[in-house]
Amino acid sequence: MHLDVESLRTYVAVLEWGSMTRAAEHVGLTQSAVSWKIKRLEQRVGRPLLIRDGHTLRPTRDGRILLADARTIVAAHDRAVYRLASPDFTGTVKVGANEDTGAPRMASILGRFKRMHPGATIEFVVNQSRLLAPLLERGAIDVAVIQVTPEDQQPDDVVLWSDELRWVAHRDMPFDDGVVPLVTFGQNGFYRPVIEPILDREEIEYTYTVSAPTSAAVRAAVAAGLGVGVLASRHVGGEIGEWARAADFEPLPPVLQIVRTVPGEQPDIAGPLIEAIVEEFTDRPTRREHDDT
């Protein structure tokens, strides 16, 4: 039997915070990712570990036995990692990430990295990909997690995951004639330069009804029936459906979520930090189960 440390860390957090939602915020994962880790842990031990008691979760008898050992294992792991971490990584590294990565998760990664390398200074900024890319090019930040299309991918980019895009609207709001109200991520949104030429070629008039900087806000506006948007396919569901009028449009390009470093010389600490980011975001079963945006 193999019990991985991160599943045990998640289990401890669920019981300390009383729910998977609050535990997810604490460990920097989504609720579905936390649920998946708990399910995998129960499969590995071969018995249930949690009981739902109203709105909270409490351990089973076996869960109580595991909890004490889990705390010990997690603490010992973190202590060993801290002690063995190279003391050579010092200096400042500036990191940027778009909202789709999940700011709590990125902050959690950077926090663990800082504890492992106390001599390092980390500066972290969350912004849209089209604003982060120029900062990276001129060296204002050292590492960025951003969205690109395949044609804009560079040879040294590290791909974390890919998304298929879909035209979306409220399931009961077809917007099948007249001027199309658009819900976008604003003037600097990544999708706007992609969708505008398509609508122009289709000779469809459009107007900007909602401009929001976050995925959650765009999804809420689409789900409320305020207009048509473009979102990753994983967000289709519930009140958000595919926009039927776009069925004959040219396909939307796939989108890659990548890690990119500043061209030329970079801080020595950037390499290990990139490795930590890649390890975190590629250690999961599917993108749908682990995304919270």
Order of helices and strands: HHHEEHEHEHEEEEHEHEEEHH
Count of helical stretches? 10
**Largest sheet: number of strands, sense, barrel closure:** 5 strands, mixed
CATH architecture of the largest domain: 3-Layer(aba) Sandwich
CATH class membership of the largest domain = Alpha Beta
- Strand fraction equals 15-25%
Terminus-to-terminus distance? 34 Å
Mean pLDDT: 86
Which regions are unreliable across 5 or more consecutive residues at pLDDT < 50? 284-293
- State the CATH topology of the largest domain: D-Maltodextrin-Binding Protein, domain 2
Strands, helices and their partners?
Blueprint: H1 5-17, H2 20-27, H3 31-45, E1 50-53, E2 56-59, H4 61-84, E3 91-97, H5 103-116, E4 120-126, H6 129-137, E5 143-148, E6 158-163, E7 165-170, E8 180-184, H7 192-201, E9 206-211, H8 215-223, E10 229-232, E11 240-242, E12 255-261, H9 270-282, H10 287-290
Parallel strand pairs: 3-4, 3-5, 8-9
Antiparallel strand pairs: 1-2, 5-12, 6-12, 7-10, 7-11
Helix pairs in contact: 1-2, 1-3, 1-4, 2-3, 5-9
Detailed description of the structure:
By secondary structure, the chain is α/β, with parallel strands linked by helices. The protein has three domains: 5-84, Orthogonal Bundle (Arc Repressor Mutant, subunit A); 91-162 and 256-290, D-Maltodextrin-Binding Protein, domain 2 (3-Layer(aba) Sandwich), CATH 3.40.190.10; 165-253, Periplasmic binding protein-like II (D-Maltodextrin-Binding Protein, domain 2, 3-Layer(aba) Sandwich). It has helices at residues 5-17, 20-27, 31-45, 61-84, 103-116, 129-137, 192-201, 215-223, 270-282, 287-290; strands at 50-53, 56-59, 91-97, 120-126, 143-148, 158-163, 165-170, 180-184, 206-211, 229-232, 240-242, 255-261. The strands form four sheets. It has a five-stranded mixed sheet. Strands 10-7-11 form a three-stranded antiparallel sheet, with helices on one face. It has a two-stranded antiparallel ribbon with strand order 1-2. Residues 284-293 have low confidence and may be disordered.
